[in-house]
């Protein structure tokens, strides 16, 4: 056990600010599919004070999806996501980690991405925009990568694909990877400097948050503005000519794009260009997580599946023709359910004239 003062003092405000009211239990995805208190924000706060090297305590800490829903309703203003990442770092520094997370970390260190993919390296040239697809869109859900390029080409955007190294988002969320994030930052910063790009557009909300928010806090500016692809397309929607469909679609707000970065309206505006939007029961800052975030899909697939299943049941109650999201990883996780799912960019690329 780590010395109590050494562990407790830096986190005193975190523990004291939590009044143990329990309102977070009403929204926490992992609590809502298990009904065990130690898989809730309140339970995790209590257990984190002990820091006993125990398997159940470790599981409690590392099954948090870092979705941020609890912060949305916490009347005491507890920054739970930020703190759970610090707690994870403390566990890891004491030699207590999730094996799958450490394996993922080693793969990223070795390959530059979590999927053992061959990095896509384009020769630098002067461009206005860098397209940073993110690892999942580039290596696993390639249709999102291709659909994005189609739309950028349609808009005659002068761009270069920057995909030499993982941004480090997943590694950071699980308490690892500041070194990976630094390599990602340095790679993007170099690309900006050598191309003169003033804008970075990304398909992945996790990358978006990491590049725009985390890098700035940890290392400084990358030297260019950062936009999610839905923001960019919304800004240029007057240049896009879409075919209208009779589809009724629902939209799943990704946690990193929505609660973490406050992008809610742009994806909806794009959807309404091509289809009828039928909202889910929990949307925008109250959206229910897909179950894939925070390293949970990699480390605890049973939890990921349970949370995904709860979201899919909600989709079925609303009964749209198609479920859309704006995140390659949400798309990847929600595909495991038995409803029709696409990334919003896939649909838009199919319908652009």
From TrEMBL:
Its EC number is 1.8.98.1. GO terms for molecular function: 4 iron, 4 sulfur cluster binding; CoB--CoM heterodisulfide reductase activity; metal ion binding. It comes from the Archaea. It holds the Pfam family Fer4_8. Keywords: 4Fe-4S, Iron, Iron-sulfur, Metal-binding, Oxidoreductase. GO terms for cellular component: plasma membrane. It is an enzyme of class 1 (oxidoreductase). Residues 8-38 form the 4Fe-4S ferredoxin-type domain. PANTHER family: IRON-SULFUR-BINDING OXIDOREDUCTASE FADF-RELATED (PTHR43255:SF1), IRON-SULFUR-BINDING OXIDOREDUCTASE FADF-RELATED-RELATED (PTHR43255). Belongs to the HdrC family. This is CoB--CoM heterodisulfide reductase.
């Amino acid at each position: 056990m780590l010395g109590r003062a050494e562990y407790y003092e830096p986190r005193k405000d975190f523990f004291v600010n939590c009044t143990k009211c329990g309102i977070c239990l009403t929204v926490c995805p992992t609590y809502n599919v298990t009904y065990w208190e130690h898989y809730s924000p309140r339970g995790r706060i209590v257990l984190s004070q002990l820091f006993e090297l125990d398997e159940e305590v470790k599981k409690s800490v590392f099954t948090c999806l870092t979705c941020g829903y609890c912060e949305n309703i916490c009347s005491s203003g507890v920054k739970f996501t930020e703190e759970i990442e610090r707690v994870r770092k403390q566990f890891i520094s004491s030699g207590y980690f999730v094996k799958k997370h450490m394996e993922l970390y080693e793969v990223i260190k070795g390959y530059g991405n979590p999927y053992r993919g061959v990095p896509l390296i384009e020769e630098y040239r002067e461009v206005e925009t860098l397209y940073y697809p993110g690892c999942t869109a580039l290596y696993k859900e390639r249709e999102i990568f291709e659909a994005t390029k189609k739309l950028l080409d349609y808009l005659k955007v002068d761009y270069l694909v920057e995909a030499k190294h993982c941004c480090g988002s997943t590694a950071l969320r699980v308490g690892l990877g500041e070194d990976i994030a630094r390599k990602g930052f340095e790679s993007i910063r170099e690309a900006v400097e050598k191309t003169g790009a003033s804008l970075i557009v990304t398909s992945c909300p996790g990358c978006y948050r990491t590049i725009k928010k985390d890098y700035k806090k940890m290392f400084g500016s990358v030297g260019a503005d950062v936009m999610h692809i839905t923001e960019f397309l919304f800004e240029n929607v007057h240049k896009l000519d879409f075919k209208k469909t009779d589809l009724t679609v629902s939209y799943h707000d990704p946690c990193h794009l929505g609660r973490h970065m406050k992008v809610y309206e742009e994806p909806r505006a794009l959807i309404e260009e091509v289809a009828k939007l039928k909202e889910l029961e929990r949307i925008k800052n109250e959206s229910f997580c897909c179950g894939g975030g925070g390293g949970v899909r990699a480390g605890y697939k049973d939890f990921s599946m349970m949370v995904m299943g709860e979201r899919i049941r909600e989709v079925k109650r609303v009964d749209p023709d198609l479920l859309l999201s704006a995140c390659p990883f949400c798309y990847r996780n929600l595909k495991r359910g038995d409803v029709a799912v696409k990334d919003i960019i896939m649909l838009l690329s199919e319908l652009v004239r």
